Amino acid sequence: MRKNIIYVALAAVAVLSSCGKNNGNNSDSITKQPKDSVVVAGEDCDITIGDIRFTRSVNGADALVTLQEDGSVEFLAGENKDFFCDPKGKTSNNSAPILLTQIDNTKPFTLTAKVQPEFTATGTYNAGVLYLYEHNTHWQKLCFEQDERGKHRVVTVRTIGTSDDNNHDAISGQDYVYFKLSSDTHIIGSYYSLDGEEWQMVRLYRNDYPEKLYVGISNQCPKDKGSKSVFSELKLSQNAINDFRMGE
Q1: Which residues have CB under 8 Å from 96's CB, separation 6+?
Q2: DSSP assignment, residue 29?
């Protein structure tokens, strides 16, 4: 009887060990991207807007921005320009222009901007966008975007291999919002404000980006013939906000 009990116990240990190894392999296959799918898009550039020096131009972004006398920047996008990794693999598009600067992600940071997209009757998904970007299948964007019903709303998209798509609050009565992305090196928060003073959190998650990370701005026009977004009050600091729930 004692021998039978020992055999049963050893068999159970073997099964548990096997399950643990299988789970580990499955996890690796989900979180690791194939090497040939990882591309750091764009080319080197040198454009200063406010106190931010942008050094990476994706899809010709450096030729699509125009500095204004008031310190703002007009950002153009052509027809059918978007950045999205479709979970079904049918409507993926990585053609949107993005202007980026590299930061040290081992330190806290906060990126803020006032964003005013060009919304039109036919401009579904037109948006002015803030970006966090490692490579073409690991990034997040924070958008002021026109939805399918013509409403203007805050949208976040996080991409790890493929993109999710999250519609947040609809904004009425004004054609601009203030955006903020902030990290204390451990977590990243996404926020919007109507006045630049009171902030609303829309997304919070673990900072899983590498030591070197790009942040930046973009204009997208997935459905229309072309569009323009205006960015102003652009600021990038090596500090985090104090309260990740309140955005302040």
Answers
A1: 58, 59, 77, 81, 82, 83, 129, 218, 219, 220, 221
A2: H
Contact criterion met (CB below 8 Å) for 184 and 168: no
The single-letter code of the amino acid at 134 is E
Tens digits of per-residue pLDDT, 57-72? 999 999 999 999 999 9
Dig out the tokens for 80 from the structure: 């059918």
Query: Is the Cβ–Cβ distance between 155 and 222 less than 8 Å?
Result: no
- For residues 233 and 214, what is the distance between their CA atoms, to the nearest angstrom? 19
Tokens 């900072």 belong to 207
Q: Scanning the structure block, which residue is given the tokens 């009990």?
A: 5
Q: Of 134, 161, 144, 154, nearest to 216 (Cα)? A: 134
Determine the pLDDT at residue 34: 53
Chain Cα centroid distance, residue 27: 23
Q: Specify the pTM.
A: 0.85
Token digits of residue 50: 């406010």
pLDDT at 37: 63
Residue 5: the pLDDT is 43
Burial 197-224 (b: 16+ CB within 10 A, else e): eebbbbbeeeeebeeebbbbbbbbbbbb
State the first-to-last Cα distance of the chain, in angstroms, to the nearest integer.
Answer: 67
Q: Residue 143 has which token pair?
A: 């958008």
Alpha-carbon span 220 to 165, nearest angstrom: 15
